[in-house]
Amino acid sequence: ASMAAQVNPDEIGKAFVAHYYTTFDTNPPALAALYQEPSWLTIESKRHQGPQQIAAAFHQFLFRDDGQPKFQAIKHVATVVDCQPSMANGVFVFVSGHLVIDNNEAAPMMFSQAFQLMPLPQGGGFYILNDVFRLNLAEPQPRVMKSGLSLP
Question: Residue 54 burial by CB count (10 A; 0-12/13-18/19+): exposed, middle or buried?
Fold first, then answer.
């Protein structure tokens, strides 16, 4: 049996992304429940494993040392969501989009995020096995690849 017959990657991936970003934007501490002990998060090149470390990483991203929030409001807008079936009925999801910080629509911050979703061992849904988040900050000079293609 092919993996495509067992899971619909677009349906699962897009529903997951909608849930993930709604949760992030309205109740970030609840994100920890989407991760399990073997889960990894890389946020801006720093790796964290397991729900406790991942929750602490989100807290550090969102709050200053004095406990005050860094942002009054944060909104993720996923503009592209690409999904693939993967081994063991998992789903690989790649997202490009932008963050609107403190309702400043004029200055969105571009981001990319990739998720490897795996079925929960007990069934009834998926958890995040791998999660890589990166702000796509403008680089001062365009880079030229060996092929001659210029990257923004």
Answer: buried
Q: What share of the chain has pLDDT > 90, as a percent?
A: 63
Are 90 and 118 in contact by the 8 Å Cβ rule? The answer is: yes
Rounded CA-CA distance 150/63 in Å is: 37
- The helix (run of H) or strand (run of E) holding residue 18 is helix 9-26
Question: pTM (2 decimals)?
Answer: 0.83
Q: Which of 33, 63, 37 is nearest to 48 (CA)?
A: 37
152 pLDDT more than 60? no
**Helix, strand, coil shares, percent, the chain, to 5:** 30, 45, 30
Instruction: Select the more confidently predicted residue: 143 or 123.
Output: 123
SS3 93: strand
The CA distance from 41 to 111, in Å, is 15
* pLDDT above 60: residue 10: yes
53-67, 105-119, 128-142: least confident range: 128-142
Can you tell me the distance from the alpha carbon of 55 to that of 130, in angstroms, rounded to the nearest whole number? 14
Give the whole-angstrom CA distance, residue 131 versus residue 114: 6
